[in-house]
Amino acid sequence: MALRCSSRHVVGWVGLLLLGSLLGHSLRAQDRGAPRFGPATLGDTIQVEASDVGRLWSLAAAPFDRFERRYGMKADSAWATHLRRGLLRLPNCTAALVSPKGLALTTARCVRQHLDAEPGTGAVVAEEPADERAVSGLYVDRLVAATDVTTAVQAARSDTTVQAAVASVQQRRQTQAPPEHRVEVESVNGASYTAYTYRRYEDVRLAFVPTRTVSGVGGPDAAMTYSRHALDAALIRVHTSDGTPLAADHFFEPPSQDVRPGDVVFSLGHSSGTRRAESADQLAVRRDLMLPNRRDRLETWTQTLRTVLDTAEAGSSLRATLRAGERALKRTRARLDALQNDYVMTRLRRRDAQLRQALRQDASLNDRFGGLLDSLAAIQDAKRSLASAYRAFGHLGGEPRPLSGSSTFRRIVQARRPETVGSASSAEGTAMGMPESAADRTGQPPAPVRTALLAFRLDAVQRHLQPDSAAVRTLLEGQSPMERAAEIVKSSVLATPSDPSQGAATPVVPDEDPAAAVVDVVAPRARSFYEEWRSLTRTERQLTRRLARARQAVRSAPVHPGSENAPRLTDGRVLGYPYNGTTAPPFTTFFGLYEQTRAYGGDEPWALPDRWRRSTAELDRSVPLTLAASTDAAAGTRGAPLLNQYLEIVGVAVGTNIQGAAGTYLFLPERMRTVGVDVRGLRHAIMNVYGAEELADELAGGTSTLSE
Fold it and tell me: Which candidate, 458, 469, 466, places its Cα nearest to that of 519?
């Protein structure tokens, strides 16, 4: 059924949502379950730790001496090679080879995102190899080499920029590589460069994935929580171009002994990047301006879409989009809560104070990096002066996954009136960094959602313009932001994306269009703001990269400042943590899964499928299902393998606890945890719930009959 509603209903929905949003902030302020990051008592007891910037290590220079000192173990280049060769990269995810026949372990979410658009997305269980199912659009890249190319990049920099030098080295090595290989040169804050060489395999088949009700028990409310009782795991098999399973020379075998509390654990994944190099002043601006704006936008988006789905029939793709939005909202709230936490901010401020002191004590470092923190503080002051304009015009792209920004408002900013056509460069809209998004081209959210997001923006613009009553009258023409948004979404040429076949994407808005007056008010002001903001952020990025190098210079260990897709190694132990007045256990079991289902009355999203209820006699509920480890989640949590010191696989990382959501700012090993599915629970479920004995045997180290 199509999702339709009248403008009157849309306006009513948005009004209720805005009221609910105001009430929601008040209620959340009293939330006793809010994430806690440190002791409530502040003062001189708060110490900055070396671990604050994390435990992220490059595969090209793994800290073997650290591992020996800390864990009493031996690791060498052969250890690192085995680690590297067993790793796989999926789109936005990681996987690990677990058998010599190309079987690999990842998370259900990593696989299911490629199944959402297909029918029949329940459990997939290949009881025999012939049952394994091809997954269109899913590929894996196997890391085959990691080479230090710092010298080559430095040599290429003699007469060009850093970016051009990196591109030149990458292109040269790509030309020399076989055609099925892909070379990517990545940097650790500009101090060193590594060329990662991947081999791509496009024939990937699904051997096992549970239903969403099992892999995501509890839905978004249970995401980023621990104790966790979800089987968020999947098994895929990699095939070569001739259709035969990959003969893996390196893979991660099951452990010879069960993992226990306190055991050493390593994780290897593709880093999502962090903001740990940023100053306390930078993060305070995120706390006061950017994160609240993002939270409010996501609240509007999720509340409206939830209302739509409650009142109309909708496909599974919209429901999956809502779940993604609710997870993004929960993560944003947790990060905001962290930066509003006195313990966290005190620790961040003292880290900056220590850096200042270290620079003052070293004349050469002070010459290179002195004044950096002051320069960044000045930029933050300039950003704060633009706070009202940022709320009105900033961050037009919205969330990348899901796309929660108003595409209609973005087109308003880009639009031109007939009298201005030809008066400016047609490339200006693209120069502003706001091209038509993938969502614009492939489908739009329901009209109520587009209306609510546009009303959210128009309300912010009205507040920004409030002293200018004439501009406000022109903007709204006597209507409320909700009414104005509904009219534009219903009738404006800007309500739908431009047709790419018609040439330039910048739309022209005629005089009679309901958005014409809005374009006149918004477009020039937004462009002016964007140019000023972009100038500030460009300078800030350069200074932040230098700040990362300064932090590294006084710490002698990598500080990862930004977004990257390079593999990173992290170490820790299987450990619980202080939680809600007690201690969270390092393991959960199937007992907890069934008890949780019973406690919620067996209702969605806590219900279990029939086959899980029928399997109670065969299932040993004392078997571990999930585990918690003190590894640095910034190394990647979507499918990253959890390995013991012998590089035997004990689990697969699926996320973090709620404190770990703030790991993008600093790492607190006392409380932040990586959460993973225990391979013992996975094997036990595959065998006793799904009856796939051959698959369970292969995962346990047995021999598959795949090639016999």
Answer: 458
SS3 per-residue string spanning 474-488: HHHCCCCHHHHHHHH
Q: What is the pTM of this model?
A: 0.87
- Using the Cα atoms of residue 474, residue 476, residue 479 and residue 483 in order, give the sign of their dihedral: positive
Between the alpha carbon of residue 621 and those of residues 124, 214, 651, 661, 681, the distances in Å are 23, 15, 18, 29, 9
> 444: helix, coil or strand?
coil
CB-based contacts of 292, cutoff 8 Å, min separation 6: 336
* pLDDT for the residue numbered 24: 42
What does the DSSP assignment read for 185-240?
Answer: EEEETTTEEEEEEEEEE-EEEEEEE--HHHHTTTGGGGTT-SS------EEEEEE-
Q: Give the DSSP letter string of 1-18.
A: ------HHHHHHHHHHHH
* Crossing angle for the helix pair 481-491 and 469-476, to the nearest 10 degrees: 40
Between the two ends of the chain, the Cα-to-Cα distance in Å is: 49
Domain 52-139+202-275+560-699 sits in CATH 3.40.190.10:
no
35 prior amide bond cis, ω within 30: no
Neighbour tally for 410: CB within 10 Å: 23
Looking at this protein, which amino acid is placed at residue 303? Q
Of the listed ranges 90-104, 563-577, 675-689, the one predicted with least confidence: 563-577
**pLDDT (tens digit, 9 = 90+) per residue, 130-153?**
899 999 889 999 998 888 898 999
pLDDT in tens, 75-124: 999 999 999 999 999 998 999 999 999 999 999 999 988 885 444 457 89
Strand order in the sheet with 649-656: 57-58, 567-573, 264-270, 641-643, 649-656, 674-678, 624-629, 587-589
DSSP assignment of 308-322: HHHHS---HHHHHHH
- Which pLDDT band, with edges at 50, 70 and 90, does 479 fall under? very high
Highest mean pLDDT pick, 304-308, 395-399, 439-443, 578-582: 304-308
What angle, 0 to 180 degrees and rounded to 10, lies between the N-to-C axes of helices 447-465 and 407-414? 50
Angle 7-28/481-491 helices, nearest 10 degrees?
130
Query: Residues of CATH 2.40.10.120 domain(s) within the chain?
Result: 52-139+202-275+560-699
Local structure of 55: helix, strand or coil: coil
